Amino acid sequence: MGEETTECKTTEFTTDSTAREHIVEQDDNLELYLAQIRKIFDIPRIIDAPRDKSQIINYYLMNKRSYRLAWNFEGFIHCGISYDGKRKKGDFREQARIVDTYIQDNNAKKVLELGYGLGTNSAYLARRNPHVAFDAIDISNKPLRSFTTIPNLHFCFGDYHNLSQFKGNSYDIVFVIEALCYSTQKLEVLREVKKKLTKGGFFIIFDPYTRNRAIPLSESEKTMWKLIYRGSVLETFERIDNVEDAMRKEFSIVIAQDLSTYVLPSLEAQESNARHYFNHATFARAINKVLPFDVVRHLPQLLLMPTSVRRQIACYYLHVLKNDR
């Protein structure tokens, strides 16, 4: 992968309208799903719920256990990447494996993770690279207890919009997995990361976005999309072209790879699990009365996310940015 850092590589998911119509006609359940959600949830409550930093912190603290059950027991709480179209347990490690390739190819000495969640990615990498120093920052600072004893890994409390606690120009690699989407000031984060990277260092980003598209969203699609990002306490998913414009202001984009088709298997597995809940409205309403709102508010997202990808509304990208300016 060292040779791949010399030029920008872009892999695009199909945007052909004929293909899109075929996908929707064959596999789409959007209207059924929205009808099922309305029987169980007050949709405006999800869409209009507060979304400040304290709400984000509370959401993740409340869902620490449920995310492990929903995604996998290893503690990876992001999408798996399945290149062969078949979901496997090891697919959840693929983001960390890609980061590890950059660590190895560039002989990295210091690595920083933004928004570490449960800490699983940094723990995986630190154990594989015992001579590399890892720092990881999150606004909740609640990693799994078993990760806190790894000698070359230090978990820090903080907001990735302000990285002043870390030494400047000292990290060879900074990475973030499905957490940059929580920022509404991504250029500020990019500038903070740039201050901390060494010359020639890499910022590796895995994140979901709104796909660039000319076709306006239907009313049902608008409702679906809001349920998806507001259910996870997000303000919105930004358009991919707008985010890439911000990236180019501070970095060179080495790789921009659309991984949308490869994350579908793990998303579809969650969709399948969520169907059991939404197919039993009486049971689901009873569950909603028992569990906190922050625990159940993301369930419509699990049901709807694959549809948003198949309809080419959502996309999932790997970006590798190089600090060469």
Summarize the structure.
This protein is of the alpha/beta class. The protein has 14 helices and eight strands.
**Uncertain regions spanning at least 5 consecutive residues:** 1-26
What is the spatial order of strands in the main beta sheet? 1-7-8-6-5-2-3-4
Please identify which CATH superfamily we are dealing with: Vaccinia Virus protein VP39
Shape: globular
Helix content: 40-55%
Assembly form of the protein: single chain
Q: Describe the biggest sheet?
A: 8 strands, mixed
- End-to-end C-alpha gap: 21 Å
Topology order in helix (H) and strand (E) letters: EHHHHHHEHEEEHEHHEHHHHE
- Mind telling me which CATH architecture this is? 3-Layer(aba) Sandwich
CATH topology: Rossmann fold
Radius of gyration using CA atoms only: 19 Å
What do the pLDDT scores average to? 88
- The count of helical stretches stands at 14
SS elements, strand count: 8
Beta-strand percentage range: 15-25%
* Total individual domains: 1
What is the CATH top level name? Alpha Beta
SS-based class: alpha/beta
